[in-house]
Design goal:
Elements: H1 2-5, H2 21-31, H3 44-63, H4 65-69, H5 78-103, H6 109-117, H7 134-155, H8 161-189, H9 193-212, H10 224-229, H11 237-254, E1 265-267, E2 272-274, H12 280-290, H13 294-307, H14 309-329
Antiparallel strand pairs: 1-2
This protein binds 3-hydroxybutanoyl-coenzyme A.
Length: about 325
């Protein structure tokens, strides 16, 4: 269904006068913070935007397993291995909650996965960067999951009920993810000189990709105006990025690491840190499929999907057998 609904995003938000009675009634619910539930009437574009965002979000959780899963066998201690394994499993669970939330909008998980595999749906830009060493795994947990939480805490208040409820559970687990990442990087930052250098290098490489996760600037964001009017997004890309920078800079300083951007400076007047723009050309290039790992990530996901076909077939056959037996017993 979503495949037929894909169209160019528009920045135009209807005024109340331009809305139909049904649309005005819908907007009143949004304005009064009444959650929209699957069986409620909703504008087609609201449904389409949600499927796009929730689908991309689900894909990000699942593709996000790849850079970390790659390190499970190489974690430095049994404890770190167990923690990383649990985290990577959590990400699969998050993908499931989110695909289920998208299903409540009438879109199947199989169709969303197909669109991902055909390159017709996106996933978070961050997962197209490599994890070169163990320090990167700490930095991913701390910075990437840290950025994800800032966004997801806001999304707990999103207007669509099933998405909002999925976020509440996901955020609890993400907090553990960010904490374990910070703990891992802390060990390195306070370890030997060699370890501290690795931690610094990881932060230097991942800083700008992490702040790109919040999407383009508000001025360049095609979907924000309408998504915010519908409270699908409750904070803008730039607001969330600033919140992440403000909470992360003191953590970098606590670790005794150098700031990864010479433009980071406390701005007394604004009550926020100033920081440099990431390279937006690089960002748009990555989301178009040209990042360092896009090709590998997609081919790994397709392989995992194909390799798992026998499991899905088995589960389906078992479910069919069980329901046939139940019917026969009735
Ligand atoms: N990566 C890839 N594409 C991105 C992007 C990013 N970091 N940021 C923006 N884009 C894309 C948008 O999808 C949009 O393209 P489209 O119209 O073709 O879909 C285009 O760039 C313009 O951006 P907009 O600001 O207009 O797009 P949105 O309004 O959708 O805002 C968003 C982008 C803030 C990422 C929003 O979609 C969002 O909040 N999504 C839910 C959160 C999410 O997806 N998080 C994934 C992070 S990773 C994660 O959670 C896993 C955890 O385990 C670490």
């Amino acid at each position: 269904m979503y495949a037929q609904m894909i169209k160019t995003a528009s920045k135009g938000v209807k005024t109340r006068e331009e809305m139909t009675d049904q649309e005005r009634e819908f907007q009143d619910k949004i304005d009064n913070d009444i959650k929209i539930e699957p069986r409620d009437w909703m504008p087609d574009d609201y449904r389409r935007t949600l499927i796009r965002q929730i689908g991309q979000h689900a894909h990000s959780e699942v593709v996000g397993q790849l850079p970390e899963g790659n390190w499970i066998t190489r974690a430095p201690t049994l404890e770190r291995k167990a923690i990383l394994l649990a985290k990577v499993q959590d990400e699969a669970g998050h993908g499931l909650y989110l695909y289920s939330a998208a299903e409540t909008l009438g879109e199947t998980r199989d169709e969303l996965v197909k669109l991902l595999h055909e390159g017709r749906m996106k996933y978070s830009s961050i997962f197209n960067y490599p994890t070169l060493n163990w320090a990167d795994i700490g930095a991913v947990g701390w910075l990437v999951d840290g950025a994800a939480i800032v966004n997801q805490v806001a999304l707990q208040r999103t207007s669509y009920g099933p998405y909002s409820r999925a976020m509440i559970r996901i955020c609890k687990e993400e907090s553990f993810h960010a904490r374990q990442g910070y703990h891992a990087i802390m060990k390195m930052a306070f370890g030997t000189l060699e370890q501290k250098k690795m931690a610094q290098d990881a932060v230097n490489r991942l800083w700008f990709p992490a702040i790109m996760m919040f999407g383009p600037t508000d001025a360049a964001s095609t979907n924000s105006d309408q998504s915010m009017a519908w409270k699908i997004k409750v904070k803008s890309n730039d607001e969330l990025r600033q919140q992440f920078v403000d909470q992360t800079v003191p953590q970098i300083e606590y670790l005794g690491l150098d700031l990864p951007d010479p433009g980071i400076k406390w701005n007394e007047e604004r009550g926020h840190y100033d920081f440099s723009d990431p390279d937006w050309t690089e960002f748009f290039n990555v989301i178009k499929g040209n990042g360092p790992c896009n090709v590998d990530r997609l081919s790994d996901r397709k392989k995992a999907w194909d390799d798992g076909q026998w499991v899905r077939d088995g589960l389906l056959a078992h479910a069919q057998k069980k329901s046939a037996a139940k019917l026969a017993a009735e």
